Amino acid sequence: MTRKQKKILIRIICAVLLLVTAFTVNGGVASLVLFLAAYLVIGYDILIKAVRGIASFQPFDENFLMAVATVGALCLGENAEAAAVMLFYQIGELFQSIALGKSRRSIGALMDLRPDSANVPDGNGGYTAVSPEDVGVGDTVIVLPGERIPLDGVVILGDSAVNTSALTGESVPRSVRAGHAVQSGCVNMTGVIHVRVTKPYGESTASKILDLVENASARKSRSERFITKFARYYTPAVCVAAVALAVFPPLLGIVFHGTGAWSTWIYRGLSFLVISCPCALVISIPLTFFAGIGGAGREGILVKGANYLEALAGVECVVLDKTGTLTEGVFRVTEVYSECLESAELIEYAALAESGSVHPIAKSLRAAAPDGLNGRVENIRETAGKGVCATVNGKSVSVGNAALMAELGIKVTAHGGGTEVFVSVDGVLGGSIVISDVLKPNAAKAVKAMKKAGVRRVAVLTGDGEAAARAVADTVGVDSVKWGLLPDGKVAALEELMDGGKGRTAFAGDGINDAPVIRRADVGIAMGGLGSDAAIEAADVVIMDDDPARIARAILIAKKCMSIVYQNIIFAIGIKLGCMLLGAVGIADMWYAIFADVGVMVLAVLNAVRAMKIKEK
Amino acid sequence: MIKTYKIEVDCANCANKMEEAAGKVQGVTSVTVNFMTLKMTVNFEEGAEESRVMKEVLKKCRRIEPDCEIYF
Lengths: 617, 72
Prior knowledge:
The complex is a heterodimer of chains A (617) and B (72). Chain A has 21 helices and 22 strands. Chain A has 617 residues and is of the alpha+beta class. Among the domains of chain A are: 77 residues, Calcium-transporting ATPase, cytoplasmic transduction domain A (Distorted Sandwich), CATH 2.70.150.10; 111 residues, 3-Layer(aba) Sandwich (Calcium-transporting ATPase, cytoplasmic domain N), CATH 3.40.1110. Chain A has a 7-stranded mixed β-sheet with strand order 10-22-21-20-11-18-19, with helices on both faces. In chain A, 46% of the residues are buried. Chain B has a 4-stranded antiparallel β-sheet with strand order 2-3-1-4. Chain B has 72 residues and is α+β, with helices and mostly antiparallel strands. In chain B, helix 1 packs across helix 2. Chain B has one domain: 2-Layer Sandwich (Alpha-Beta Plaits), CATH 3.30.70.100. Chain B is built from 2 helices and 4 strands. Chains A and B meet through helix 4 and helix 9 of A and helix 1 of B.
């Protein structure tokens, strides 16, 4: 508790004691004095603020309203009510300030990425700790096990496992060794590593993410703007209603019966004033978004604004890029069909023949071959679009597609399911190797989870050919697929899908070559944000690792957040209007009014904090 | 020029009022007050003198919420 909060707490305790004694004394001058004392102890600052408000022509603040309501109650002889209204109002304020401070801290802790210091070698084999801001690009920092990596960089010495969960939500540690890039905010786990810094502190991953999350709630959602507007009219409207309630019925009474029952109606009018503070709404709505954005951040989902969280909740159509989103984006040997050579031999010949090529297929062939492969390779002739012919260990080897084999007069039958590479040795077909982009293990589950989260339509757009596109679409079970699209073709295809449905459309891609499509979608989601600044820049929502299942998580978090927002709006406005109606006809007295104001605010704040935690699956 | 300042204010409604008041100060194009992170982001007009503008912003905010603080 801060000093301010402690002071209020002491005042509350004093006031409660005074009130209890006042009740036990029961009547007479003594109890009047005690009630007044309690009232002044708890409410003196409100009265002072109210007077100051009037002096500066800002009358419609809650201090003024509370002051008028309680002073009015005192004048009517309702001393207990006056003191109690002030007391509960202050308890509500204290609670609110504690709850806000707490959620500020816990959301801050969720995103605890800020490194305290960086260890810089001092030249004698040791190191000194300096502030990360003072480390420049090209400097070396030493990261001990258990420490947070202070700045983005490349490992130059040592190997270790790093925990990226603070950035990505992924709990399996990543192993790193010399040459690997590491991001600030990750925790070094097992070994000492030396890192050459590649980015200054201000541009490092940790600072950027913190910036994004902290500024996210500055982009206000429609609901927040609605509440701000509502608050602007609500308080004055209630005040006018209170005056009307206090004045008109008695006047009518005088006209028709000759008596006005002034005190009854003024009391009802004063109850109105107690309800007139829109605090419950004004606090709980932004708090809900803040908590939701914080909770998502902890799972490696960065939402760049409350408005995007709101849009995400209304997503009915998710459009996915294939390569890198549903698939690994890396070509691998997935199948080997032997004709007259063993599969290991086939791969060896293919890898040797392709040893000089930089084509992605050649790379994946070499990756499939065992390490330290040796062989005499001569006479390499590469034909673009067909393949490679070479002499390997004295044998003439050809590696390529069906067109190359046809040229050599070798008859082949295609097996399909990816890019098939045929290998012939001395004019005889040895077999074929199928290379394809591997589906992510949980791609199908991710699409199912999206459907479960309320997405009506999942579509895939890809620049790849029909066979590959269909294979992926069928395996993961999407509703539609379009292939052979260039980036601008993807934008057009996305627009077509956006025209179809009423709900919002989200597009998820890797954020590098999909940037225009990501910008065009209602909600642009970039996958694999860790280590890719382009992705973080372009998108509205960034998924730090490349797990497509997190798209459904993001939608679920957004939906829960929005349902809490609506609950609070309906609950708070409903209870307040209800109490006003009951108050107007005399059923609810000032005690109900206190509940309508403070009680609703407390409940709304507690409800808002729920947005931070969303159950697993 | 856009700058962010740490602020102190107790109630969300007051934060909204501060935002409104600060936005009307001369030399400021727009102001966003983030009650959750207690930060005020000020978008200054071209050539505006930061310290003078911020003094005025603080004065206007204090008139609405005497308890508030802006650190600049």
